[in-house]
């Protein structure tokens, strides 16, 4: 004897979320069935809309909603007041929000959506570094600011990008003091990030 | 600068789940957008189907799928081989599963979907105890087996039901040794629950 199939299916479906095991999934299912049917329907609608409607910006790889425009671009890449020759490289959309909140940066981003991790099958192509390489060669980029994490994978990614930029003759800087070693960028406060952006230095091995 | 609206809406929607704060919600959203669009769509479908299609059994209050039948009944209440004069009272559908897994019980259930908690606005009517009272008076119930939790709320609920049954002249038993004090029924193993069902005793104040 089990739950009715619709209930079992929902419990099973919840376990696809990170950090959600069978017991949490059951608790979520009960909570929505008992006290939150309307919220459950809203969540269903939001999920469906996001899965179908969220794409990636064709220039910076950040999240962008699908439009009928010729090129799918995010709000930052479309903003004419921002400096498109200055590119800040981050590993996730959350890190874009963190840098934006520092109020110190008015250039564009390049969002890796991950960091180099060959054992997990994440190589340069998965991070869009072939696209970045092409853009570096096109000569429209004046400076790359590296703001990847200070973990092993973040360091490896930073060095890989440093090599690409040197080959293309583009100067590379890196956000400086204030980013705690081993920490993830999205947990750093805005004032520290502003200081790190102001104190950026040439990147060397 | 924030995420695109579809992304923000999904993050916000996830926080309706128990134990999910803004940061977990963001992690879930990124995970589905990056690596699980198809799973995300399945979750959306399962949510919508469960929110619309799951109802409560009109006899025992357990989850049951909506049907076109005159009465909406669960699989246990529809099973002609089970003894409908023996009713086991539990506080949640998870506890029905736990008792079923003990293999010791072939009667029906009455699922309270909660326990008495006046401060949270949960009174007898919210637990369907007015319905249970009517059924006790109808004379079709031979024995009530109390299997509510051993918490303060569970004890209060058990005593309330004991009074109802006494007034109707129905005998009341309670599952015995093996249920740890202060624990929730769904965490008890099947063998312990089987022993508790076999060793049930008349319930007294």
TrEMBL record, chains A, B:
One of its GO terms (biological process) is DNA repair. InterPro entries: DNA_Rcmb_RecR (IPR000093), Rcmb_RecR (IPR023627), TOPRIM_dom (IPR006171), TOPRIM_RecR (IPR034137). PROSITE patterns: TOPRIM. The keyword Hydrolase does not apply. GO terms for molecular function: DNA binding; zinc ion binding. Keywords: DNA damage, DNA recombination, DNA repair, Metal-binding, Zinc, Zinc-finger. Residues 85-180 form the Toprim domain. It comes from the Bacteria. NCBIfam families: recR (TIGR00615). May play a role in DNA repair. It seems to be involved in an RecBC-independent recombinational process of DNA repair. It may act with RecF and RecO. Belongs to the RecR family. This is Recombination protein RecR. The lineage of its organism: Bacteria, Pseudomonadati, Pseudomonadota, Gammaproteobacteria, Oceanospirillales.
């Amino acid at each position: 004897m089990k739950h009715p199939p619709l209930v079992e299916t929902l419990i099973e479906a919840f376990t696809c979320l990170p950090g959600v095991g069978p017991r949490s999934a059951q608790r979520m299912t009960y909570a929505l069935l008992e006290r939150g049917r309307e919220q459950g329907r809203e969540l269903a609608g939001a999920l469906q809309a996001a899965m179908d409607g969220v794409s990636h910006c064709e220039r910076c790889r950040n999240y962008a909603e699908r439009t009928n425009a010729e090129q799918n671009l995010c709000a930052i890449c479309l903003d004419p007041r921002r400096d498109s020759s200055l590119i800040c490289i981050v590993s996730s959309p959350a890190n874009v929000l963190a840098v934006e909140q520092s109020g110190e940066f008015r250039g564009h981003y390049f969002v890796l959506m991950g960091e180099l991790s060959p054992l997990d099958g994440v190589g340069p192509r998965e991070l869009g570094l072939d696209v970045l390489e092409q853009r570096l060669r096109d000569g429209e980029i004046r400076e790359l600011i590296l703001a990847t994490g200070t973990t092993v994978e973040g360091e490896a990614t930073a060095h890989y990008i440093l090599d690409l930029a040197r080959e293309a003759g583009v100067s590379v800087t890196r956000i400086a003091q204030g980013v705690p070693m081993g920490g993830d960028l999205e947990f750093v406060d805005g004032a520290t990030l502003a200081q790190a952006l102001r104190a950026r230095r040439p990147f060397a091995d």
